[in-house]
Design a protein that fits this description.
Blueprint: H1 4-24, H2 32-40, H3 45-69, H4 75-98, H5 101-125, H6 140-157, H7 162-173, H8 177-201, H9 207-230, H10 235-260
Length: 264
């Protein structure tokens, strides 16, 4: 069981993750692994990845329930995408566990940089007029192919992968953005649960810390959503600030992992 200090640090970390998710609407779970490593103090990168995967899954379930009640989830596409992606997630988790922990963190930092770049691109795109939405496509092959690819990335790095899943659903089906965001949560839950079970079987999930992160995340997401409503006039600015934060954390993680591997 975590002591008082680690419990408080875990609550604060969960609060930061939930706050950023509530504030900018995505990307906060990418901070879970570095927060567990450098704030909470979990020494094993694989244990941090397994723990964060389960915490992200539970948080995604709460969000999914809200979207499902609103009727935003395209269940047929969600089921096909998630089922295909589970196989990718199993393969990704198996590969991730055999890669050196510090090397995995070094690669994870590049993923964080990609997330930051995508968020900045999204900020620029929101200033431009969007074309009229085309009819949704339901061909199964693209959905299965994108599902396997994103599932592998999610399992390999132990992340929710929503920043990959949403663009993949848009590319495979052309569904509206709100539906893609809601539908992606089904895949986030499926991939995260698959990854966390794989890591739990290997003894690489800290269950008490998962509960602490989720508790902090619930409180943090409430505060982030409230602030987002107050600052709703400038959503692009909020995402730009968060993207810069991701860049800083990614470069710090890259430096720490490079030092641990003797590259710096």
């Amino acid at each position: 069981m975590p002591d008082v200090l680690h419990t408080l640090l875990g609550l604060c970390s969960g609060g930061i993750i939930g706050f950023t998710l509530g504030l900018v609407g995505g990307g906060g779970s990418i901070l879970a692994v570095p927060l567990l490593l450098y704030v909470v103090g979990i020494a094993d990168p694989h244990r941090a990845i397994g723990t964060s995967a389960l915490a992200v899954t539970i948080n995604a379930l709460f969000s999914l329930a809200s979207h499902a009640r609103s009727g935003n989830v395209v269940w047929k596409c969600a089921a096909l995408f998630a089922c295909a992606g589970i196989f990718g997630a199993l393969a990704g988790a198996a590969c991730g566990k055999i890669v050196n922990g510090q090397r995995l963190l070094f690669l994870f930092a590049f993923v964080m940089i990609a997330v930051g770049a995508l968020m900045m691109r999204r900020c620029r795109q929101t200033r431009q007029a969007r074309p009229q939405q085309a009819a949704m496509r339901t061909a199964p092959l693209p959905i299965v192919a994108y599902g396997i690819a994103t599932g592998f990335c999610s399992g390999f790095f132990g992340i929710g992968g929503g920043f990959l899943i949403v663009p993949a659903l848009l590319a495979a089906t052309g569904m509206p953005m709100l539906s893609a965001i809601a539908t992606s949560l089904v895949a986030v839950c499926a991939f995260g649960l698959t990854t966390s079970i794989s890591y739990a079987v290997a003894g690489m999930v800290d269950l008490p810390m998962v509960g602490i992160l989720v508790a902090g995340g619930v409180a943090g997401s409430t505060g982030g959503a409230m602030l987002a409503r107050r600052l709703g006039q400038h959503p692009q600015r909020l995402r730009m600030i968060f993207a810069c934060l991701i860049f800083l954390v990614a470069f710090y993680m890259m430096w720490r992992s490079a030092r641990a591997m003797g590259l710096a």
